[in-house]
């Protein structure tokens, strides 16, 4: 059995077009029904403001599958520790034996999450998108910009965050990469000129309203990945001309569609058509019918992404 540490994994896998292609192919396989993906196993550790998630999937034809354990303990920064951690275990799809453990400390999850956001923008945003609004100032907020630059010529970033000092620090880091960055005191002002809006927060209350959406914008919601999180007001989704999620079942349980799920009812009452990102990619569904249309993509994170990026990482490490 192989054991790989974060330094070697980071050297093998970067946020680049090769990794984007791997994640794109994983989503397409999911869209074609060529993946087995069970529900997420999630556990809250309330006394420590923490949560642990287990995700997995098998992609037909892959020699290995990943089981990922990721943790988020959100008071850790007060102790000088990172909020996120985790590892990925790789099993043979022929024998079930453990092939490797990737002790990536959450790095591969961060990469594949950012790349999913890039794919959402690739297929749903206007081709000439140049200006991005980011709500949030954490690690994923930064990686989302790096990933978006793989698919769009991003020039300007507008940022809002609950903590102004975090927004200013984020802005300075992006300015060092040659981007024009504006820090805003409220969400509406931050979104006024956006081509793309990315929400990347742990918010438990909606922070984005339909009134904040300029004509033609694309919204990617990254933060709602558990039953107690929300970033989008209902009005954002009902206002959209097209709503996409990575998987409908996860969006209804952990993501933004849970706003329309009534407890105890067998069927959800979603007042609009729901598309899944894998089907959009595989079938090249033309959901943006005009430059004035508004599109929304809700990403909760899938086991398919984890198996795809972990398999790619291990192949690179073995080369």
Automatic annotation (TrEMBL):
GO CC, any one term: cytoplasm
Pfam families (alphabetical): OCD_Mu_crystall
InterPro entries reported in the protein's UniProt record: NAD(P)-bd_dom_sf, ODC_Mu_crystall, ODC_N
Domain of life: Bacteria
Gene3D superfamilies in UniProt: NAD(P)-binding Rossmann-like Domain, ornithine cyclodeaminase, domain 1
Protein name: Cyclodeaminase
Organism encoding this protein: Chromohalobacter japonicus
